[in-house]
User: Fold this.
Amino acid sequence: MAKRVIIIILDSVGIGYAPDARSYGDSGASTLAHTAQSVGGLKIPNMQRMGLGNIEPKEILGCPPSPDPSASYGRMTEINCGKDTTTGHWEMIGCRMESPFATFPNGFPEDFLRKWMKETGVPGYLCNRPISGTVVIKELGEEHLKTGFPIVYTSADSVFQIAAHEERFGLERLYEVCRVTRSLVDELNVGRVIARPFVGTKADDFTRTPRRRDYSMKPPSPNLLTLLSEKGLPFYAIGKIEDIYAKVGVTKAVHTVSNADGMKKLMEAIKEQKNGLIFANLVDFDMLYGHRRDPNGYAKCLEEFDELLGPLLLSLGRDDYLFISADHGLDPTYKGTDHTRERVPLLFYSPSLEAKDLGTRSTFADLGATVAELLGLPPLAFGRSVIE
Assistant:
């Protein structure tokens, strides 16, 4: 049988602050350990059996080390600058960033926004500063309904975010404005443009919907995905993976409305695609609980994923290779509302492989390098396979 690789990224599920966390203001952050402590212990038996508790010297309460783990286990250290979705995902496929994307602590330049209004056709905008997405729609949602002006804002990450009401502004119109914006922001070196649709009639009931879309800068090539495409292997993208990688190499893509929906679609993909790469991002950890600093919700989300993981593990054959990892941290017990610079877990499972300790990897690119080896692709520019 042909080999099939499945990657599941648990968006923001870090496993302890990185060696350079101090320079990001994140010393002491530890998403998994602190979430577990805050709820008196996690109930995640499937990941525990795989070896999640064997990775981090600091105990994950409720997830002790397994005496006989079913998967290889380790942790990866990011070397790209930054602590966001794009930098982490790019590094996984072998893209090295020597300098960070631009960030905008004082908002976007006024001369750029004048050009942006002309090109997008919007008559005005609201906000233009770093702010929480849930806070900004409560503060400015009613004014948005009155004026029709989209809400433009950013964060500590390199993002140009546009929030707009699905009915008042229009969902397709929001997507089109974001597509035009993506064509403009390269001059500012912005990593992602994000459409943030919401619904509701007043501040107390404004709610963001799952119809978010990301418009990312195209990753530099060659990379794992371009090599995959050159060999003619299929790449099934689930969740925001298609958006993160700007559709590079994608042969089929499905978006999701929740982690549960993502796992359902992942199981459907496994039935449908018998070789190549299936790559899923599960964003609820980050979007619903991490940024909102909700450790109880974060813990419940981890437990729900673990329950859904059981049937997936049983569905895998000897030529299937599963990776479970993350793209950055987002400690829900930490200060502020931004991502945290952390190492990420790496669980690597196949019924045909003997489990081993993978140790601490020096780059996220070790994941991509391993996938390249499994699928018979040329080696990546950097990264070392965990298969020795």
Notes: Residues 110-216 form a domain with the Alpha-Beta Plaits fold (CATH 3.30.70.1250).
